[in-house]
Write a structure and sequence with these properties.
GO molecular function, one term: cyclin-dependent protein serine/threonine kinase regulator activity
Oligomer: single chain
Number of strands: 2
Pfam family, one: Cyclin_N
Family: Belongs to the cyclin family.
Keywords: Cyclin
Number of helices: 17
Radius of gyration: 22 Å
Biased composition (Low complexity): 289-305
Strand order of the largest sheet: 1-2
Distance between the termini: 39 Å
Strand content: under 5%
CATH topology of the largest domain: Cyclin A, domain 1
Order of helices and strands: HEHHHHHHHHHHHHHHHEH
Length: 382
């Protein structure tokens, strides 16, 4: 054993206490830096493919169980956050997804036991086993599987759960954009059709890193802005719903500075950044429909409902084409606002306290205080 390692990890050199601070949001620069740091030898394209596979797995799992949208969206957000702190090469995305969904069920009081999540996940991952199962919900009977394998999967789920809890510093406070979206849509007189499209786009935002960068009111307003762009760009003027504002007018208003920014605590530059990210996701989906974005939202779980009723339906064909979306991005670039400066909330690399010396699990750190905000927000002595 390396003598230097022994001295560094001897009881006399282990700090008696340390603090870890929760970072509710990250700047785009921080997200890019941390993503690159944890990506390893993967390319950006490979990383994005894994991310979309994970989000699709969470969608399929959540819909089959019947979780509400808030549980599925938060699980996707927790998955993204986890890999800002921990390298992708060290974890199977299925283990991280199951742990993220388990933590999300606790946050939203839709709790399921780990074995229940595993049973449904086996049905998705191993359809041959599900076909042989006699369970009415299509789940795999765990008694028919190797108990040692099931226990190993359960232990990995619980181990990753602990790490996810540390990344949020045990802060179970979570806010979703959907309630904000409904209120904002009413406030700006958006029509039902536009509001429905905005809702689906807000769901798609959770397949990206946007919820880690912007608060829910910004996600909600950005979804309305993107929906207005998609509904008006290269479309003939249509008669707006009675008493509602036309989509073209909403897109024009939200694309420039105005009094609405102060009213809704949102900035136009952020909406443009969101629009480009979501348009990139939609272009990817149009070119590869199997990516399956914009799923339907299931109802809350009920013991009287058959889980088969929650199985995800094939997505409808997209109403736009890739070249049209690319032209929209080009048109936006010609009139875009200069990016605004966003200083980080914290003073140091947020991931530095989670992966020192490349060791992720089982480190003896002494007493650790988990605080619900960054250092300069919490203040001294908190």
């Amino acid at each position: 054993m390396d003598p230097g390692y022994s001295r560094a990890h001897s009881p006399s050199n282990i700090p008696t206490s340390s603090s870890k601070f929760h970072h509710p949001y990250f700047t785009p620069a921080e997200v890019d830096y941390l993503s690159e740091k944890q990506r390893g030898k993967l390319s950006v394209t490979q990383e994005d493919k894994i991310r979309q596979n994970a989000c699709g797995f969470l969608e399929a799992l959540g819909v089959r169980i019947g979780f509400p949208r808030r549980t599925i969206g938060t699980a996707q957000n927790l998955y993204h956050r986890f890999h800002l702190y921990f390298p992708r090469k060290d974890f199977n995305y299925v283990d991280v997804c199951l742990a993220a969904l388990y933590v999300s069920t606790k946050m939203h009081d839709t709790l399921k036991k780990p074995r229940e999540l595993l049973a449904v996940s086996y049905a998705i991952r191993y359809p041959d086993l599900a076909a042989k199962s006699k369970h009415p919900g299509g789940e795999v009977d765990l008694d028919s599987m190797d108990p040692q394998l099931v226990e190993q999967d359960r232990q990995r789920l619980l181990a990753v759960e602990r790490l996810i809890l540390e990344t949020v510093c045990f802060n179970f406070t979570t806010r979703m954009p959907f309630p904000y979206l409904i209120k904002i849509a009413r406030a700006i007189n958006a029509g039902k059709k536009l509001t429905k499209l905005s809702w689906r786009l807000a769901i798609d935002c959770h397949r990206t890193l946007l919820p880690l960068q912007y608060p829910p009111n910004t996600i909600a307003m950005g979804s309305i802005y993107i929906a207005a762009l998609l509904s008006s760009f290269e479309h003939p003027p249509e008669q707006p719903e009675q008493g509602c504002c036309p989509a073209s007018q909403i897109a024009e208003t939200l694309g420039t500075h105005g009094s609405w920014e102060r009213k809704f605590q949102v900035q136009a530059e952020d909406l443009e950044d969101m629009a480009h990210t979501v348009l990139d996701l939609l272009i990817q989906f149009v070119q590869n429909p199997s990516a399956n974005t914009s799923p339907s939202t299931p109802s809350s779980p009920s013991p009287h409902q058959n889980p088969r009723h929650h199985q995800q339906q094939p997505p409808p064909p997209p109403p736009y084409k890739a070249d049209q979306l690319i032209r929209l991005k080009i048109a936006m670039r010609q009139t875009e606002l200069p990016p605004r400066s966003r200083p980080p909330l914290g003073n140091t690399d947020p991931s530095s306290s989670y992966n020192k010396d490349g060791t992720l699990i089982g480190r003896n750190e002494g007493t650790v205080r988990f605080l619900f905000g960054p250092p300069n927000v919490m203040g001294n002595g908190v």
